[in-house]
Amino acid sequence: MADSLHMCILEVLSKHFILKFCYDPDMKENSNLEEKEQSSWKKIRSIIRWSPFVQVFKKNRYPWIQLAGHQGNFQAGEAGSVLKKLDVREQKCFKEVMDDILRPYVPEYRGDVERSGEMYLQLQDLLCEFNSPCVMDIKMGVRTYLEEELSKARKKPSLRKDMYQKMIEVDPNAPTEEENQQQAITKPRYMQWRDEMSSSVDLAFRIEGIKKSDGASSKDFKKTKGRDKVLETLKSFIGENPEVINKYIQRLRAIRITQESSEFFKRHEVIGSSLLFVHDNTGNANVWIIDFGKTEPIPDGKCIDHRTEWVEGNHEDGYLNGLDNLISVLEEIQGLS
Question: Which residue, 99, 122, 185, 298, has most beta carbons within 10 Å?
Fold first, then answer.
């Protein structure tokens, strides 16, 4: 029924726009008819893609997915969009990236909207082109905290009982004797420990969450540290479809080349940003750069290369080291296929 209605809409719009654009009296008389028809079809296809019917139809294909971050930060939007709670730092980054060569590799920023008194970023819905998608969030870099967070914590240290609880739930032996007495730790202490116990420090990336096509999801990757464990997890996520891994590797190589030339990337400390992997059983697959809530400009107009070893004060984040390692692991999986 839905497909039939879709085709009816397509037919009606096709007739309307071919008449309008191919036989508009204001058009130049010497224009080529075939070129007009191709141009008209592009317009039709664009309108069909973003029509309310198609978006409602697509919206029912999958449940809303959030693999990482604070729950409640996202809401479903309209016309192929999702809403993310507005963060001024992230808003500024999205505005800059829309004018940078990185633009094809990030969700399209479509301005801000207000809903129930709350402001949101309106972003492209990256899942709407997939059928029952498999989704994976990989956090990039050797650290998940900004240098300014460390300096602020030293000036005004505060103890967090909630982060102490998170630590002992994963490893009861991780806190020091003093931390056990206080039953609290500082946020930088927790973040440094969290990075060290995962693959962030060794591989400069870590798996945050995975959702399979059958709806099963997991964020239990806190101790997925060694290359072999990471490889097995990625292999399980991708499955046996060689087309999917080929597309992932090609996309990551393109992202790497673009980041190496991007002015935005050179001049920002990119912390807590993720690569979002999405594929389905048709072989459709893609990767996007997401999350700029902790992306800060480098002081004094300096540049970083994202590969130099991080020493406090140099603002290096290891992002490209992580991307090199991630591509290497996927290439190894590709060789095993």
Answer: 185
